[in-house]
Amino acid sequence: MSDRILTKHWGEPDSYTLAGYERIGGYKTAPEAFKRTPDDIVAEVTKGNLRGRGGAGFSTGMKWSFVRKEKATPKYLVINADEGEPGTFKDRYVLELDPHRFIEGCIIGAYALDCHAVYVYCRGEFEPGPITRLKAAITEARARGYLGPSVFGTGYAIEMHVHRGAGAYICGEETALLESLEGKKGFPRLKPPFPANAGLFGKPTAVNNVETLANIPTILQMGGDAYHALGCPKNGGTRLFCMSGHLVKPGVVEAPMGATFRELIYDRCGGIPGGKKLKAIIPGGSSSAVLSADQVDLKSDFDTLKGAKTMAGSGGVIVLDETVDMAWALYNVTKFYAHESCGQCTPCREGTGWAARLLKKLVDGRGEKGDVDLIYNIARQGEQRTICALFDGAAMPLKSYIEKFRADFDSKVKA
Amino acid sequence: MVASPFNPEQQARFDAELEAALARFPPERSQAALLPALHAAQRELGWLSTETLSYVATRLKLWSTRVREVAAFYTLFRLKPVGTNHLQICTNLSCALLGGEKLLEQACTRVGARPHEISADGKFSVEPVSCLASCGTAPAMQVNDRYFDEKLTPEKLDAIISELERVG
User: Fold this and answer.
1) Of A137, A378, B98, B168, which one's alpha carbon is 20 to 30 angstroms from that of A36?
2) Same domain for A213 and A267?
3) CA distance to partner chain B, nearest, from residue A249 (Å)
4) Could you tell me if the ipTM is greater than 0.90?
5) Are residues A273 and A192 in the same domain?
6) A181-214 pLDDT tens trace
7) Quick check: A2 pLDDT over 70?
8) In angstroms, what separates the C-alpha of A85 from chain B's closest C-alpha?
9) Is A198 in contact with A109 (CB distance < 8 Å)?
10) Whole domain around residue A267: which residue ranges?
11) What's the confidence (pLDDT) of residue A1?
């Protein structure tokens, strides 16, 4: 397909090697980028309307311009490769199958940010595959002089370091990630200051997602306007959708930003197995509010989904067929947030566990009158009252599953 | 000085990893090498005892309470021993929709250990794990440093455990 950029050579046996990447024109863009000014590069990325692929969908160019405005040095580029949002598995494939594209993006990003150290914070579970591949790729690139004291012979130094996390969902939150990188437990920081102003070691820091950086070489090659045109208004480029759940052909699908869920589910993933009917779609990782089957024609871009009171998030699309009991599904999801709450804020520490226990009661057939409303109220009263968005990520499913599939909950309450 | 928990070979590998980790950060930010140091220690010893945590603390000039606090926060750091084969089965939604929870039960029954416990022969431990980023090939399992993420089934799980039993 012509709209394939990030997945273009995933099928080739040596796609993860430097030779494999160079064969398709890799490492041609970064040396050209050094002939432009950093401000020019940031402007091009801004024009491309590249939105952060980790979850929040913030403009990458704007984030970089905030870091550029800061006077303090050194500046840092920190890559969030903590990919822990249930239903999300694209960054793992980028690192395993195409690490050099990501590295080239990091080289350009570091130059644009006037920074010389890039830290890639990878989730600990990635050790066997993605971390091993990424480390090998960095070694290859450094041996060739694409990283190190004089990148591409320009005299500009860039070192890339891989840092292994240790199993904590909260460390995908950017300030918790920075705490963890500094050798502490992953407690999110109060914002402001934002990482762009005071991030790693208190220095100006851009925290970007893996897939976001992998898009940078393409933006500079085709230009911001052409890249923007690949997607939809204000949402440039293509996106890696992580398609899982009840699908004939699950997996990572690259499609234009704004592809509809119908296209993703039925055209790209072969629909639902066994001819079953669609019941619900989780559009952007398990933290996003659930969509009902009649919303299947919605576009998947950040703005459309925000308008539909959910989010495009991490691109983790989980498809549920008609056999799924939504109370069971919500219990599964909420149990995860209860386990992963860092415990710093009371509404989250207590609320997630409380809601999970009530849901267990329902699922076990011990539900009592008032339980469903209580679960809903725990979510409503806790949201926006915590340091980070983990509780909001638990509240969105809690509220939306109950709003849209109330019958699945009420049917479990003893008369 | 707290005594080292390592034999000479382990010590050499640990020292090399610690040195490399420290070199990645500004000199005054040595605490940043804590997670790498704990990973390195656990790789050598299988788990992190109180003595090991104290030793890591000494090496990084940190309070041992600070090191314990960090080690206890992260689920991959094991503060008690695990089996030779540590089975981690994902039970998050994408895997659960396709049978992840049943596979966890099956594994526990088969090896004779409840979640987070070790089998009597010490060969196995089983635990549920958060999303392994294998949702497109769910359900997924990780055993030590190996992924088994090609759409695990009860039959495949049985065969994998048999194979692990055979090789020890």
Assistant:
1) A137
2) no
3) 8
4) yes
5) no
6) 999 999 999 999 999 999 999 999 999 999 999 9
7) no
8) 7
9) no
10) 238-319
11) 42
Q: Does residue A36 belong to any structural domain of this protein?
A: yes
**Nearest CB partner across the interface for B73, out of A123, A185, A286:** A185
Q: Do B135 and A186 touch (CB under 8 A)?
A: no
Whether residues A93 and A24 fall in one domain: yes
* The pLDDT value given to residue A20: 97
Q: Is B74 on the interface with A (CB under 8 A)?
A: yes
End-of-domain residue from the set A319, A348, A377? A319
A99 touches chain B (CB under 8 A): no
Domain borders along chain B are 8-73, 85-167
Q: How many domains does chain A have?
A: 3
Please tell me the distance from the alpha carbon of residue A70 to that of residue A123, in angstroms, as a whole number.
Answer: 29
The share of chain A scoring above pLDDT 90, in percent, equals 97
The CATH superfamily label for domain B85-167 reads Glutaredoxin (3.40.30.10)
Task: Answer whether residue A245 shows pLDDT above 80.
Answer: yes
Residues 339-368 on A with a CB inside 8 Å of B are 339-340, 342
pLDDT at B168: 67
The answer to whether position A3 is within a domain reads no
| DSSP-assigned letters across all residues of B41-93 | HHHHHSS--HHHHHHHHHHHT--HHHHHHHHHH-TTS-SS---SEEEEEE-SH
Q: A59 pLDDT exceeds 60?
A: yes
Q: Which residues of A touch B73 (CB under 8 A)?
A: 168, 185-186, 342
What's chain A's average pLDDT? 97
Both A277 and A338 in one domain: the answer is: no
A266 plus A391 within the same structural domain: no
Answer yes or no: are the C-beta atoms of A290 and A393 closer than 8 Å.
no
Say how many Å lie between the first and final Cα of chain B, rounded.
37
CATH class held by domain B8-73: mainly alpha
pLDDT per residue as tens digits for the range A268-280 = 999 999 999 999 9
